């Protein structure tokens, strides 16, 4: 259903912005839905010429279909990127998104696993003495011990581990590279895993691999994370990103500087990191309520 101009835009997104495959597919799905809506509702087949009323109409239809405001805002962001691209290429002269506003969304605090639960998972839960068991524990240790994103873990290579300097080299969003310090215990776990990987005859350059020795993929990491988090927490959400939230929250609770956490997470601005301060404030409030005689 994509038009030629949309395909041109998607090629730009993939080649120039070097976004992840997940992001690329999300852009493609959003644009495909928008093009389909214009065709069905307006018999209009030129998304580059759509006006703000058509765009608002699509947003209303998404809202009426009970899509969450957060998801709708992501689609609005896709259109902003699309029309900005058209402006830069001088394909259009006016941006129809100027008159389109994002929808209000509730500020959800990051979901995280308690420190005691993570200690229980990594210190007391038994992992099988097999390649898969070693890999599964390493996945959890890496996500919680470095705060890296799911996509970053998948792209991590054997050569990105610096045993001498005790760091990991991570390629983040927009192709930005950052260095994350890790502890000796995690490095020892990586060494044991690499030895097991070699014994199995798995020569893939990527650190985390499937049983067949192929590069890992989101579904594999998500299943492993959910399986083991289910053993220690009753949280509804049990994803790799929850471990990233846990990493940041526990660092902050134990006195880490917010700017340092920003750099460790690979955030482009401090505002993205400040959401973790709300969890700390809630913790302080509970301590006050429990301890102060006038609370």
From TrEMBL:
Keywords: Cell cycle, Cell division, Chromosome partition, Cytoplasm, DNA integration, DNA recombination, DNA-binding. Residues 1-87 form the Core-binding (CB) domain. Pfam families: Phage_int_SAM_1, Phage_integrase. The active site is at residues 149, 173, 241, 244, 267, 276. GO terms for cellular component: cytoplasm. Residues 108-289 form the Tyr recombinase domain. Its main location: cytoplasm. One of its GO terms (biological process) is chromosome segregation. GO terms for molecular function: DNA binding; tyrosine-based site-specific recombinase activity. It is found in: Cytoplasm. InterPro entries: CB, DNA_brk_join_enz, Integrase-like_cat_sf, Integrase_catalytic, Integrase_recombinase_N, Integrase_SAM-like_N, Tyrosine_recombinase_XerC/XerD, Tyrosine_recombinase_XerCD. Belongs to the 'phage' integrase family. XerC subfamily. Site-specific tyrosine recombinase, which acts by catalyzing the cutting and rejoining of the recombining DNA molecules. The XerC-XerD complex is essential to convert dimers of the bacterial chromosome into monomers to permit their segregation at cell division. It also contributes to the segregational stability of plasmids. Forms a cyclic heterotetrameric complex composed of two molecules of XerC and two molecules of XerD. This is Tyrosine recombinase XerC. The lineage of its organism: Bacteria, Pseudomonadati, Bacteroidota, Cytophagia, Cytophagales. The gene is xerC.
């Amino acid at each position: 259903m994509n038009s030629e101009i949309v395909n041109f835009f998607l090629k730009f997104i993939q080649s120039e912005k070097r976004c992840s495959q997940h992001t690329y597919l999300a852009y493609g799905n959003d644009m495909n839905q928008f093009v389909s809506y214009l065709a069905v509702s307006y018999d209009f087949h030129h998304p580059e010429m759509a006006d703000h009323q058509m765009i608002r109409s699509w947003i209303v239809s998404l809202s009426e279909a009970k899509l969450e405001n957060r998801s709708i805002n992501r689609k609005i962001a896709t259109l902003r990127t699309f029309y900005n691209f058209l402006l830069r290429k001088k394909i259009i002269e006016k941006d129809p998104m100027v008159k389109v506003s994002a929808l209000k969304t509730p500020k959800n605090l990051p979901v995280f696993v308690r420190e005691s639960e993570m200690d229980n998972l990594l210190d007391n839960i038994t992992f099988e003495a097999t390649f898969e068991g070693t890999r599964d524990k390493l996945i959890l240790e890496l996500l919680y011990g470095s705060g890296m994103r799911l996509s970053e873990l998948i792209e991590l290579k054997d050569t990105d581990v610096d045993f001498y300097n005790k760091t990991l080299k991570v390629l983040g969003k927009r192709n930005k590279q950052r260095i994350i310090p890790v502890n000796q215990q995690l490095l020892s776990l990586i060494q044991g895993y690499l030895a097991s990987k070699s014994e199995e005859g798995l020569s893939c350059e990527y650190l985390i691999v499937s049983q067949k020795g192929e590069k890992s993929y989101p579904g594999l990491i998500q299943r492993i994370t959910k399986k083991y988090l289910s053993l220690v927490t009753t949280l509804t959400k049990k994803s790799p990103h929850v471990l990233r939230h846990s990493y940041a929250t526990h660092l902050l609770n134990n006195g880490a500087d917010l700017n340092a956490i920003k750099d460790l997470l690979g955030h482009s601005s401090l505002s993205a990191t400040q959401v973790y301060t709300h969890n700390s404030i809630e913790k302080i409030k509970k301590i006050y309520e429990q301890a102060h005689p006038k609370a």
